[in-house]
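User: Can you help me understand a structure? I only have the sequence.
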Amino acid sequence: MRERDARDRAAHVPAGRSHGMLTPMDIQPLGAAGGVAPGDRRPIAARDLPVTGRLAGWLIARRASPDAISAGGMACGVLAGLAFAGTVWWPDAARPLWLLGALLVQLRLLANLLDGMVAVGRGVASPLGELWNEVPDRVSDTAVLLGLGVAAGSPALGAVAALAAMATAYVRAVGKAAGAPSDFRGPMAKQHRMALVTALGVWGAVAPWSWQASLRLAFWTLVAIAALSLLTAIRRLAGTVGHLGGRA
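Assistant: Let's start by predicting it. Here is the structure, written out as tokens:
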């Protein structure tokens, strides 16, 4: 099985299932026999949606590369950051750029979901799989939040939010390396950050007031992401310490 993140290394697709729709019954936890605990998996409700299973099945049937899907998601994250920054560079196009940024963020998340499903469905293995899982996520988060920092008139605040977001992933990775289960708790995990950013992008596109008001809202969105990401990192660190301390 190809190394992806914990949510997908905890899954198995029966042999021969290479096309059509994947269903929740097709993805079963490996448990101790597979070396991954059932709880070591990011909870994503969209994984069980019929449309997601059909899309994953379509990609599997065409032997899509999970790494290429990861790279595509990273490209969407970078373009989303540029779209958000573009609301300041090209104010006359601010509304469509806000909406474009929100759409690209969602495409980035979809790619994050599908790369693992395709990897499991195809049963492909790659020693670089873990890098392809983690590095594009960090690049995407940084690009999106830096772009919002430009939009908010404070690239420094965007950088702070990006570092705080990176800290949540760092603590999870270090805890896992030390022997604790992957900790995906919030209140500002990746899906929460991107949901907030998406909501901001949609609001910036449809808000009845001027685009300048959306820029002020972007500032406070970044403040919330930075503060709650740091809280998330602290909670994950405390959880990891508690788990490892209980094993000592």
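Now, to help you interpret it: The chain has nine helices and no strands. Residues 1-39 have pLDDT under 50 and may be disordered. Let me know which part you'd like to focus on.
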